[in-house]
Description:
Elements: H1 2-6, E1 12-13, E2 23-27, E3 33-37, E4 58-59, H2 64-68, H3 73-86
Amino acid sequence: MSFKDNHRATIVGEQTAGSSGQPYQHHFENGMVFGLSTKREFMPEGAPFEGVGIAPDIQMHPHAADLAAGRDPVLDKALSLAKNSSTQ
């Protein structure tokens, strides 16, 4: 959130799920699991974050075929951006 808000990084990949990472989970005896957010999060300007997520600056989706072949196009893009910014 802070990198997006302060424009200190180029975010590459998929939109986040919009979770603070602090859910409450209850495991039932029948194997079901119930999860509930325990914290409401907002972007600094007041926009909701919880349940909405953070959109990347460059949206890319990894594909199973790439990963199975040992390729990660999202990581490759991020490395390319990092190399290009270090030469400027």
